[in-house]
Amino acid sequence: MLPRVCLSLCVSSMLLVACGEEGERPGDSGITAVSATMSQPTGVDPSTGPTGTGGDDSTGTGSGSSAPTSSGGVEPTASAGGETEGVKLDVGGAPDFAMPAEDGCKKVDVLYVIDNSPSMYDEQKTLIQNFGTFTQEMQAALQNVEDYHIGVITTDNYATEGFFDDSTPVVNDSEPLCKFLGGMVVESQAGLCTPFASGLRYITQQDDLASKFACVADVGEDGDSDERVGDALIGALSPANNAPGACNEGFSRPDALLIVVILTDENDSSDASVQEWYDAVVGAVGKPENTVVLSLIWDESEPTCSSELSETTGSTIREFTEMFPNHAVGDICADSYAGFFAGAVPVIDSACDNIIPN
Q: If we measure between CA atoms, which residue out of 145, 136, 138, 140 comes closest to residue 104?
């Protein structure tokens, strides 16, 4: 995290200079080198990302990010001196003089976007197996946070779509209020997951996290074969769908750190542009620094990924992910996501420490 003394000196002198960068945290194996820029224009060109390094190169990896590893993590980036970098804090561009919250974030909203198209069965099981460890590590790092919202949405609308558009009734079949793209999953292949302790349609710290997540994340693979991650995000975070009485009532909070976890083994087919996805997320939290985006995507350059079911490199998902200063990209084909999630915890910790109040 950026020391507050250093940040104060930078602000008082009005100099656009870096206040230093952190070295490698203990246990940072598998972490992506993330540029946690302290200023971020709201109108980011999706082709470049916030630091001008986004987009894909000929290998299918963004030119400003490390390639996913076969272990499910992301390779660290080496500095010019040969040392491995940790989370980099870079003060540049037009300065944003909003100070981080004195004690970091107090609330965390975690939104899982799970592809429920054909071929996703194994990936969903791997996510469920790794959820407990990831959550424990995150909670251990965020010691001042006691208020969690954890929700799951999928990449189709549960109503008029399905495998070969056959409208297979599985997800939210008995919950018509939530049958829309971005509606919280309350019914899955495991059956009804309600009630939740809050009386709402997502998990909180009052629930048995492991059992409730195992239910809501078991969304199956009867979803539409045209995955719409971006459209689902827009629907999940829209004010209308978070209003009292709506399916997602109260999930998204402007004073919480938002963590978006995306799992998909194909590229996106959303109607909305990547910039519109970005605008919807930033609109929900006020500032891009108050969001962490973690994406597990399919990459044809990875030896663990095969093309038997015609998956495509998730270049659009990578582009969106890299628009945020706090992010990580990993390999959805990995046998375990433990390395990826372990590497993401310091990114989340840093974002929480430096959350900028709205």
A: 145
- The proportion of the chain whose per-residue pLDDT surpasses 90, expressed as a percent, equals 58
Q: Would you say residue 298 has pLDDT above 80?
A: yes
CA distances from 220 to 11, 62, 178, 264 (A): 50, 30, 17, 13
Whole-prediction pTM value?
A: 0.73
Separation between Cα atoms, residue 329 and residue 327, nearest integer Å: 7
Q: What is the pLDDT of residue 101?
A: 64
In 3D, which of 64, 6, 24 has the Cα closest to residue 327? Answer: 64
Query: pLDDT per residue over 113-170, tens digit each?
Result: 999 988 898 999 999 999 999 999 999 999 999 999 999 999 998 876 555 445 556 7
Paired tokens of 102? 């004195």
Report the 3 state secondary structure along the chain: CCCHHHHHHHHHHCCCCCCCCCCCCCCCCCCCCCECCCCCCCCCCCCCCCCCCCCECCCCCECCCCCECCCCCECCCECCCCCECCCECCCCCCCCCCCCCCCCCCEEEEEEEECCCCCCHHHHHHHHHHHHHHHHHHHHHCCCCCEEEEEEEECCCCCCCCHHHCCCCCCCCCCHHHCCCCCCCCEECCEECCCCCCCCCCEECCCCHHHHHHHHCCCCCCCCCCCCHHHHHHHHHCCHHHCCCCCCCCCCCCCCEEEEEEEECCCCCCCCCHHHHHHHHHHHHCCHHHEEEEEEECCCCCCCCCCCCCCCCCHHHHHHHCCCCCEEEEECCCCCCHHHHHHHHHHHHHHHHCCCCC
Cα–Cα dist 294/261, whole Å? 5
With contact defined as beta carbons under 8 Å apart, do 277 and 234 qualify? yes
